[in-house]
Specification:
CATH superfamily of the largest domain: Bira Bifunctional Protein, Domain 2
Bound molecules: adenosine-5'-[phenylalaninyl-phosphate]
Helix content: 40-55%
Largest sheet: 8 strands, mixed
Structural class: alpha+beta
Strand content: 15-25%
Order of helices and strands: HHHHHEEHEHEEHEEEEHEHH
Distance between the termini: 90 Å
Radius of gyration: 40 Å
CATH architecture of the largest domain: 2-Layer Sandwich
Number of domains: 2
Number of helices: 11
CATH class of the largest domain: Alpha Beta
Number of strands: 10
Length: about 350
């Protein structure tokens, strides 16, 4: 009987050498150690032996059984390792010491001009405020002297939501909240209100080279005693000379906005065509950039400020158009195109 055990062990060792994958190895395990396997068969055959024979045979067959289990365990490890190696070998080769070719990306030109403007105004003591894009009719219109059914609403083809709110069509929508936020400090502590609030605006526009349906504005307000048009012109001039860092022609003409009195349109000489007239400026040589004016007494009152005692100015800078002019972008729609080819050309020359 011992010969049978030795022979089975030799066959197992031999067959193990020929096994090249885990599936075949499992078949081999079943063939030897499974319910109907050869080693299990040997164990079952012990019942036909004498007590004396069974003692010796039992010991040897048990040794064979644990030896077989050990062989299979070792072979499993070996085959798994080979599988991992094969997977590694099948991967494309790469050199981990090669420096990365990753593109760092760039800031959007609108972000760049917005930051430049913020830096300029912050240096002049203005705070930068954030405001939501979904606002109420009161915020966007009524609080800035545009009651329901006022014809001035027609100038801004507004997106209304089903719940009665709207996508803000102008950053002036934040004016009332800002005035209310700082009026106490103005009245009790004589601290002038000086704030800018950049934001995205939405209008149902027929788009062209200088009109988008989604664009950025940056509103600014200053309120104190004795604020007048000269102060307004000073801040506008400082902002433009800091952003453009060169002489640019501007013109101020009367403009109507219900929330300012008097109101102005501040236009910039088109920097794409030098004022000759082109598609970007609607062939007029000028681009409307920053309407402004002295805050209407009704708007001050609605913000909790006595117009007999305080005056102020407000402006609504077209940030997207400013980016066009600063970076020579001929068509405003390129700025919202999401095309990296277009957008990655711009860098902040101040950084
Ligand atoms: C307003 O939105 C006023 N709220 C601005 C204002 C604020 C006036 C405070 C007085 C006091 P207007 O609709 O003209 O005004 O827009 C202001 C600027 O935003 C424009 O001069 C222009 O630069 C920019 N703008 C307006 N519509 C578009 C558009 N469709 N695409 C790109 N820029 C636009």
């Amino acid at each position: 009987m011992d010969d049978k055990i030795k022979a089975l062990k030799a066959t197992l060792e031999n067959e193990l050498k020929g096994v090249g994958n885990l599936v075949d190895l499992d078949k081999l395990r079943v063939a030897y150690l499974g319910k109907k396997g050869s080693i299990t068969g040997l164990m079952k055959s012990m019942k036909d032996l004498t007590n004396e024979q069974r003692k010796e045979f039992g010991k040897n067959v048990n040794e064979l059984k644990s030896q077989a289990a050990k062989y299979i365990e070792e072979k499993t490890k070996e085959l798994k390792q080979l599988e991992v190696q094969a997977e590694i070998d099948s991967m494309p080769e790469f050199d981990i010491t090669t420096p990365p070719q990753l593109d760092r990306g760039s800031y959007h030109p609108i972000t760049l001009v917005q930051r430049q403007c913020e830096t300029v105004f912050k240096s002049m003591g203005f705070t930068v405020e954030d405001y939501s894009e979904v606002v109420t009719d009161y915020e966007c219109f009524e609080s800035v002297n545009i009651p329901k059914h006022h014809p001035a609403r027609d100038m801004q083809d507004t997106y209304y939501l089903e719940n009665g709110q709207l996508l803000k069509s102008q950053t002036s929508a934040a004016q009332n909240a800002i005035l209310k936020k700082y009026s106490k400090n103005l009245i009790e502590n004589n601290v002038p209100i000086k704030a800018i609030f950049p934001g995205r605006c939405f209008r149902n526009e027929a788009t062209d080279a200088s009109h988008e349906n989604t664009f950025f504005q940056m509103e600014g307000v200053m309120v104190d005693k004795d604020i007048n048009i000269s102060n307004l012109i000073y801040f506008m001039k400082t902002m433009l000379s800091e952003v453009f860092r060169k002489d640019i022609k501007v013109r101020l003409r009367p403009g109507f906005f219900p929330f300012v009195e008097p109101g102005f349109e501040l236009d910039i000489n088109c920097l794409i065509c030098g004022g000759d007239g082109c598609q970007s400026c609607g062939h007029s040589g000028w681009l409307e950039l920053c309407p402004c004016g002295m805050i209407h007494p009704e708007v001050l009152k609605e913000g909790g400020i006595d117009p007999e005692e305080y005056t102020g100015f407000a402006f609504g800078l077209g940030l997207t158009r400013l980016a066009m002019m600063k970076y020579g972008v001929k068509d405003i729609r390129d700025l919202n195109s999401g095309s990296l080819k277009v957008l990655s050309q711009f860098t902040d020359d101040d950084e």
